[in-house]
Amino acid sequence: MEQQINILVVEDDNDINQLLCKIIRKSNYDAQPAYSGTEALIYLEKQKWDLVLLDLMLPGMTGEEILEEITAKGSMPVIIISAKSEQQTKINSLRSGADDFISKPFDVEEVSARIDSLLRRYKHTSESPMRNQLTHKDIMVDLEAKTVYANGKKLTLTVREYAILVLLMKSPKKVFSKSNLFESVWNEPFLGHDNTVNVHMSNLRNKLSKANPNEDYIETIWGMGYRIKS
Question: What are the Response regulatory domain coordinates in residue numbering (predicted)?
Answer without folding.
Answer: 6-119
